[in-house]
Every structure is written in structure tokens, then in C-alpha cells.
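To whoever picks this up:

The nightly regression suite flagged Leucine-rich repeat-containing N-terminal plant-type domain-containing protein as changed. Nothing in the input moved, so I suspect the structure step. Input below, exactly as stored in the fixture:
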Amino acid sequence: MKVLAITLWVLLFFILTNTKFVVCVGICRENEQQALETLKKQVDDPSNILSSWVVGKDCCEWEGVVCNNLTRHVIVLSIYFDWFESRYLRINNLEWLTSLSSLENLEMESVDLSKANNWPQVINMLPSLVDLRLFNCSLHHIAPLLDHHNFSSLKFLDLSENRNLNSSCSQMGFLPPQSCFS
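Regenerated output under the current build:
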């Protein structure tokens, strides 16, 4: 009986260590997929930065997009300018972001947001956002826009290298200066 039990354990161990288990948890949430596809269609992307964003393909597999493994909500979005190219990615409107209600981290580096004037209002509508980094994004004066916004969920904010930004973290009054312009 002991030999049989040991044999079964060895067999089970062999099966478990040599078998790949695939758990299908679905694809990106439909409304979030549509929001990101909307961005891809509307964006001025001369350097083809979003080339991995293939419409119809699961957005959780796109470069810069991270989804929660269980819920399949988009939780991280990172969009970077390729420094080897000479043309920036330009996003004129951030309304699509409101569909990413579970977004925790948003990072854009050297993305031209100069025409996205309502970015503070849109960011304010993201209840799960903890980390916001809009580095060198051509942002403009924001102090008056922040008077009626609650960014209490934010733990980190980086608005550095925005030369047109006519504001300081002390005027914002919700984060220490080193968190804002590091």
C-alpha cells in the first residue's frame, strides 16, 4: 500500500512539473478596449509608437498596457516617445481615459498634450489612480483648474519638464514639492 501511495505521489509530481496549465481569463474589458482603440484612431502618431496596438487584438497584450490578471481591467498605461525618432506623439483629447476606471498608473513621457486642456478634469474622474507621471508633455497652466478637484487617491505625481506649466506644487496644495517635480 505504501509503494502504491508513493508511486501515485511521484506520478502526480511528474505530471504537475511537466504540464503547463493554461487558465483562460478572457480578454481586455470591452469598454476599455474601445477606449484605447479610440485613442489609437484619433492620435497623431507620426513615429508609429502605438504600432503594437492592433485593433481587434486583446489590448492586454499591447505594449504599454497592463491588465489585472483576474479582472482584466487596464491598470497601467505607459506611453513613451521614442527618442531616436524626431516626431512626438500628439494626443489632443483625453476623454477616452474616463473609460479606464480601474487605472492605477498612468505614465506618459514626451507625449504632446498641449491641446488636451481638460486633462485635470479627466484625471479627476479616475478613482483608482495612484501614480501619475506626465513628464515633458507640454502641459499648460493648471492652478485655477485644480481649485475644485480632488486628487486624494494620488500617491505620486510627476509633472516635471513641462516648460509651459505655470504652476508649482505648493499652489496645488496636495503633495510635497518633491513628489510633483522630481
